[in-house]
Amino acid sequence: MKVEGAKQVHYESGPDMTPLVDVVMVLLIFLMMVGKFGGANRYLESDMPISSSGSSNTQVDPNLIPKEPVVITVIQPTPEAFRAVNGGKINAGDEKELQTQLTALLAGLKAAGRKLDDIQVFIKPAKNVKYSHVIKVYTAATGAGFTKIGFQTSD
Amino acid sequence: MKRKIPESHASHPNVVPLIDIIMCLIIFFMLVAKIGVSTGEDEKIKIPFGLLGKEIKSLDNTLVLNVKENNGVPETSAMLTPKGGREDIPLTGSGSKQSLESVLTRLKKENKELKLVIHGDKDMTFGTLQKVLMAAAQAKITSLNFQTTQKPAAEAAS
Fold this sequence. Notes:
The complex is a heterodimer of chains A (155) and B (158).
Chain A: H1 18-34, E1 41-47, E2 70-75, E3 83-86, E4 90-92, H2 95-111, E5 120-125, H3 131-144, E6 148-151
Parallel strand pairs in A: 2-5, 5-6
Antiparallel strand pairs in A: 2-3, 3-4
Chain B: H1 7-10, H2 16-32, E1 62-70, E2 73-78, E3 87-88, H3 100-110, E4 115-120, H4 126-138, E5 143-149, H5 152-157
Helix pairs in contact in B: 3-4
């Protein structure tokens, strides 16, 4: 009979990291799945314009009422298209085209001595115009450099 | 002289750098991620695409108003209290439900710096938005924001 001596004892030199790694991985995946990360949403800021007409009986400072506002009328010939019109100065059915025309209009107004803060833009869409088209017009006006943009309601 | 790696160490990889990196990642996600923070947005509403919008750093004093149309009928809802859920706010009051204008007027009185964020469905008509704008104007809310997305794919997909 052959008697073998005890094998060499195998000592671990540190703590067992496996459960820790498991828990940490679960936490990491949970946070990645549940967390909401900012970046996609943006906001178009607007200050409510003050108008001389309307149903409110509030007395307002006449200086706050804009003089000669730029009114952009928006219609929707088809559900997928819109057309923005302002007299003979603006007639566009595309966001980029509208922005180009509005940029030229703003340059003309500035050349005529108007200050940017005094120029109020009113967007006046028809009732059936889609909100997404309204936002396109709004974005074009913002992109052209106008800062005071509001909405004019239609009957 | 070359040091011999102890047998007990040579049998498995060194996980310490892995744990370091994962711990850093966890701390990063815990700091950056917004978990359990809700402004009352209706995630089902598809908001319009807009490239030029600005990011609002702080949504303090802000009421997010969900606006959509259901078969041409305007529907508005918002989370009026931080711990409460989203409530329907009809444009015209009925029974115990206050109208949107009354709710906005009350909130404006309580908080002079109230900002309104419109989280509107891209396919709703201006007629619906107009009613909301008129209610906001009657409530004397002067700061208004339109929430947009920078993901054109979301708009194109629908």
